[in-house]
Amino acid sequence: MSKKNYVYEKITNEIIKKLEEGTIPWKQPFKNGLPTRWKPNEQYRGINLLLLPSGEYASKKQILEAGGRIKKEEMKNAYISVYWHWWKVKEKGEIDETEENEENVKKFAKPFYYKVWEINTQCTGLESKRKDKTYNHSPIEQAEEIIENYFNPPSVSFNSGSAWYKPFEDHVNVPPKKDFENIHEYYSTLYHELIHSTGHKSRLNREGVTAHNGFGTESYSKEELIAELGASMLCGVTGIDNETIDNSASYIQSWLRALKNDKTLIVSASQKAQKASDYIQGIKFNQ
Questions:
Q1: Which residue, 199, 181, 280, 265, is CA-closest to 235?
Q2: CA nearest 46: which of 69, 15, 18?
Q3: Which of 44, 74, 69 is CA-nearest to residue 57?
Q4: Nearest to 227 by CA among 189, 257, 184
Q5: What global pTM score does this model have?
């Protein structure tokens, strides 16, 4: 395996691991808690947003040069951060990037990765540089009532950085309201995870939740469709902005493309989403 392919494989495996843990890393309408470089104090972009959980990260060299140290027990728990190096090539191979003659020169990017550690939890001797922007929102009464009336709900936490539902813990996490620029996106995100929770064996016992068999499978994709459709239904019930529902529609379409726009699938997913939405609202439905 070439070094380039090894990097790609390593990245892919990290993303799959996150997805299998219940995180959909590319659906991030929240603003705070995203991973940042400690030096300089900049938010990561691109693939690194998928690879790194919330926190501030630095390389071993940066940590040591700043007078910090990595905790002994954390040395083996490094994360990976990807960067791209741009090369210029001619037909006969690589040339120096200062080459003045640009004629017939092609550019390509080559990925590399290096190990980083989260400076607040895995290191000592370093101070956080993070200054997150927060947003002030008043709760939407009707949207809150939906959540409060959910009978036998999962446990819920509000920690910045990611949104997920873990069936084996029966636990939902969403970032707090202050992390969302748009309060409607907060409720849409929370509803998405709560719809997932209705599939727990103690509730509707839905296969996509109880028999989850990995990212990329048909059952996984169906469950994502159900969760997003159900969230859209709850948004509609509470009168939440159509823009939020439009965003959901775009997300749903991406899953449909992955499943070759199976018309039967969307009908089936809609029925199950309605059942999940009704369950959260305490509406009786026909079995």
A1: 280
A2: 15
A3: 44
A4: 189
A5: 0.68
Helix (H, G, I), strand (E, B) or coil at 211: coil
Overall residue count recorded for the chain in this entry: 287
Mean pLDDT of the chain: 80
pLDDT at residue 156 tops 50: yes
Is the CB of residue 21 less than 8 Å from the CB of residue 14? no
- For residue 84, the enclosing domain spans 34-124
Domain check: are 161 and 272 in the same one? yes
Same domain, 145 and 40: no
132, part of any domain: no
Q: For residue 143, what are its two tokens?
A: 């949207």
Compute the Cα dihedral for 60, 64, 68, 70 and give only its sign: positive
Examine the pLDDT at 265 and tell me if it is beyond 90. no
In a domain, 39, yes or no: yes
Decide which of 75, 98, 124 is a domain's last residue.
124
